[in-house]
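User: Show me an example of a complex going from sequences to structure tokens.

Assistant: Sure. Here are the input components:
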Amino acid sequence: MKFGQDVFVDDLDMDAIVIRRTNPLPTGGRDGHANRQSLAGTHVGDVGDEHQLAKANRKRREQQVSCDSDHAQACLAVEVRQVTRHHPFHARHNDAAFEEVLNCPTLYTDQTFQSKTARVVSMIQADFIVDGRITKREGNVTRRQLCRTSAVATAFILGVSLQALPMGQGGDTAPGGAITIGGDVARALTLTIPELKTMPRTTVTISEQGRDVKYTGVLVGEILARAGAPLGRDLSGPAVATYVLASGNDGYQALFSLAELDPAFTSNDIIIADTVDDQPLFDYQGPLRIVAPHDKRGARGVRMLQRLEVVRLRK
Amino acid sequence: MQRLFPLALVVLMGSATMAALLPPESDGFTWNLPKGFPAPRVPASNPITAAKVELGQYLFYDTRLSGNGQQSCGTCHEQARAFTDGRERAVGSTGEVHPRNAMSLANVAYAAALTWGNPTVTRLEDQALVPMFGDHPVELGLTRPGTDMLERLRGEPRYRPLFASAFPGVADPFTLESVTKAIASFERTILSGRSPYDRYRTERDNTAISAAARRGETLFFSQPFSCFRCHNGFNMSGATDFEGRRGPEDGSGVEFHNTGLYNVAGVLSYPSPNTGIYEVTRKAEDVGKFKAPTLRNIAVTGPYMHDGSIATLDGVLDHYAAGGRTIADGPLKGIGHDNPNKSLNIRGFPLTVEQRADFLAFFDALTDTQFLTDPRLSNPWPSRSQ
């Protein structure tokens, strides 16, 4: 299915990233709406004035690519603009290697491309873009990882992510069947389902509409441990004020304290499940979802799970 | 189908005493439950039996249960339409137009609250009295205490063994209590859960529904559209009740929703008499709140909404996409989007042509054709029609 119209990429000093999709989006609203609106590129004005935009546009070096996706439903255009060279972000990244990465003209459209850029995209969406502009430093992505992709490719992935979320909040963009763990962890990582299958497995049974349903997967704590989150003895003092934000690719999010995910701290058995009754999850659930068997309500059972964001409130 | 009447309550209270004196009813009955469905909760005062179900099937389709002798329960609840009637609003035996759209009876055994806007009607045995004797509006148009109707039933030779079998040991089983118990028993067997979507979900048959329907399912259960927040669970409806479910059984846990269908000027934002559970609670915040019906067989149950005011599913999607309906002119003029009681789940959303098609494909996949023609649910009368 054709989803990509044209993807325009400006000169990339990356002071601001504004993403615009061509299908209409509502304005205002609760929850994801505000974020979606900003991602829709309607808030350019809050990151630079028209003069700056005009100046940036003079430097525009557009690259156009057309992209296909089996899952696409909406036409998107992704536009990355330089708004100002004086944003603190630029000061940190105005080096040759960074410019080289961002201006790399190569575009990959195959699965290799997606897997190579997953971490980069995760970083960009989670750490860089808030309300349509870059607000944080590069986070956990390494320069080497950045070199694997290009600005165009990044724009492409962002487009894929957004089209997959009809009204999403621009959450994680790990490709289908993978979970990305980022934020305040020692090692940001992405785990695929095959990788999850090699980890210690936990099965929990919950009652759904009077019927016992068996979910199998990996304890969230087990996954967070791999990412170097402070668990066990390390989960004390300021670290206790740490939370984990779980995001689905439909924009849904739920919050857990790190302590309630740590098997050494509690016995909540909260898992990331990849099977239900020994079968893969249904489309609307998966391929990954959270199951919190001791929650009285299912509202934190984030379906279509893509990202865990660890946030330390006290450092 | 909204109100209980004092006399009916008296009859029920009296009959509850009688029920304690009745011999146990234990003839063989087996639920024909779709895979994954829990067992319906059955009142201890009315154990389900095969004989009662059979009697109830005859009564459900019997026009003797109407004042004009031409209507039965099945008149407004046609099997081929998943037990709805295809009208915007139902028409009673006197020609009076009901303010409400006839609800589907599919899986009514699980409904934690039975009517569009009354949380207190939770037992089918009680609800059956409403269309029989209600006069606001008149539905079947019977007169209290129903003696004439019972005499008509007594005059039908087929009923004598049916009543005797359904209520063994009772000297005269031709009572109003017996009638409502039998109808309720039959209604509990109106089970729909064998649609293509069910085959996909319970049999893991990925060929059962189209790719578009699968995409529609994902949209349905996604945060942006959030349809599932009101139409959830195995019945894709508001609150359900079943055997073993924890929680109140009196309908107090049922949520009713204002979807922004109206926002008329005046004290009440919904046009009378369709003001939702406000009619019962008299709380201003309850104006416009109605039950979320099952979406099973939804493709064959139009027109839609509590008053049948939206003709097609396309129109329903438009309503929710807009976050409430805007009526530009006339006495119902108003911007439903701005209704002060509107549910937080009704936010509006962009809807592409492809997504709309996917939604409709998903809704089509919910049609249980076997259910629509199952002879166990059909009119058993050879000549008398509903």
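The lines above are the inputs; the final block is the predicted structure for all two components together. Confidence is low (pLDDT under 50) at residues 1-26 of chain B.
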